[in-house]
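Recap slide: Bis(5'-nucleosyl)-tetraphosphatase [asymmetrical], sequence and predicted structure.
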Amino acid sequence: MAVRACGLIIYRRLQSAPSSKVTDGIEYLLLQTSYGTHHWTPPKGHVDPGEDDLQTAFRETQEEAGLQASQLTLIEGYKKELHYPVRGKPKTVIYWLAEMKDCNTEIKLSEEHQAFQWLKLEDACKFAEYEDMQAMLKEVHQFLCSKE
């Protein structure tokens, strides 16, 4: 059976964006793992028994980044599944999109992560070394641009 995980792509809008395009002021939250290759990823984790996928995404976000569901706005119309092998087994990760209500909210990392960054799209894609993650971030950005 495939391993299943869920998470949130979290973004914030900086009010001080000087340009006319609102999307230029968007930054994405990435966490750096404290294990393995120390890769960068949005908050995500495995589905617990009895939990639905979205509950998992919010629980993992709270555990890994210290963010409560009440501090986020879930963005309707975006949901993405990534499929890739981990240690020879198939893995499915489902992501939703959420905006920080207050862009200055403090991030509180768990022991699973050693650092976090708020990054503009170009930098987020550099930090996220996996092609499917980079493609998803670009897709999210296009989605947000189309909603402007």
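The helical segments are 53-65, 121-127, 131-147.
The chain is about 25% helix and 40% strand.
(End of recap.)
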